[in-house]
Model the fold of this input.
Amino acid sequence: MGRFATGVTIVTAHENGEDYGMTVNAFLSVSLDPPSILVSLGRTTDTAGALGRTGLLGLSILASDQQEISERFATRLSGREKFRNLRTHRLRGVPVVEGSLGNLLGEVVQRTSYGTHDLFVARVLVLELGSGDDPLIFWASEYAERFGPRKIQLRERPAAPPLSRKGSKAPEGKPPDLKGG
Ligand SMILES: Cc1cc2nc3c(=O)[nH]c(=O)nc-3n(C[C@H](O)[C@H](O)[C@H](O)COP(=O)(O)O)c2cc1C
Done:
């Protein structure tokens, strides 16, 4: 799954005066009408628990200079520690991250459990553009600010030998040309 490049979001919830949030890249737009999104959250996470009870989901799409926020929200800290000194504002009481590419507030309309995760479908109630410019990208378990250097690295990797047909030998010959084009 790590071969699939994604953006990074922070999914948030608010319950009884407490803020919850976690880093999530399992996020997609599922419908334009009604505008709806889906996130997949580990069932044992605090955020999934709060979200299941309140039904109101906040989501911020992180900008390239917000890697530290992604790392902080991916650790099992208390909500208070995660949000300490973080610039946020609230959409119907649910915190969203300032400086992101965009924020939304959604109302959970469907929740499905599968394996270790809960899938939440939420209808978008509020959508706002943020002040961030470039996306934070996550790929192969690392953050990438730009695609260029990665692309070159991939091109320089030796190509896999051609697959042989059943009963025939793979052709031997000169090693793959690594210079690329
Ligand atoms: C880049 C990145 C993306 C992640 N995406 C997800 C995800 O889509 N779903 C998920 O359940 N956990 C995901 N995680 C892991 C959670 O952020 C992590 O388990 C977090 O500690 C859960 O917070 P909580 O238990 O305090 O609520 C991701 C982590 C990183 C670093």
Observations:
- DSSP finds four helices and twelve strands in the chain.
